[in-house]
Amino acid sequence: MQIPGLITHEGITHCAWRTSAPEYRHYHDHEWGLPVADDIQLFEKICLEGFQAGMAWITILRKREHFRRAFEGFDYRKVAQYTEQDIERLMADPGIVRNRAKIMSVINNARRACELVEETGSLAAWMWSFEPSADERPAVVDLAYWTKNPTSKASVRLSRALKKRGWTFVGPTTMYALMQAMGMVNDHLEGCICRQQIEHCRQQFNRP
Hints:
The chain is mainly alpha-helical.
């Protein structure tokens, strides 16, 4: 019997969304859910999740290399220095999502990231302090859980903390997607071959 949300191909079971677009295969198998502790990589993920708001993730994933070039690798220290001229440059770039509010949010968040790093020493360490406790994690991760729970208590806490610091486009749903992407939670469905692999990586991961 086929389990909702999973698909078996050549004897290997994966989350079904892996097969919905060619780009998803590598992203699902080699990136989504792997723990991340690098400040710039985390800033990129925050920005791209913000750009995704109201859009399909595949659109952002297909444009990711363009985004990286446009925003200088998402080095928040460089982006924090952007001016109105940079905003106009980005608005004229067809390779990215040309949404002024989201572009300005990236610049604002870069400045907030600089402040946070100056204060705490590490964006990654601060972010990982919001990792949900064991009793906040579901016993079983299935399609029904995903459908009904686009946020979590931890993502609400993270969202509120970031907003208090002046960050934008960091709502609870966006922050939950970030937690999934950066490995703070392991939401590969039960039965997906990657779930145990990711869990092993999480167990071996040294939290910053």
